[in-house]
Amino acid sequence: MEYVKAFLVGGLICVIGQILIDKTSLTPARILVSFVTAGVILTAIRLYEPIVKFGGAGATVPLPGFGYTLAKGTIKAVNEMGALGAFTGGVRAAAGGITAAIVFGYLIAVLFNPKMKR
Question: Is the full-model pTM beyond 0.90?
Answer without folding.
Answer: no
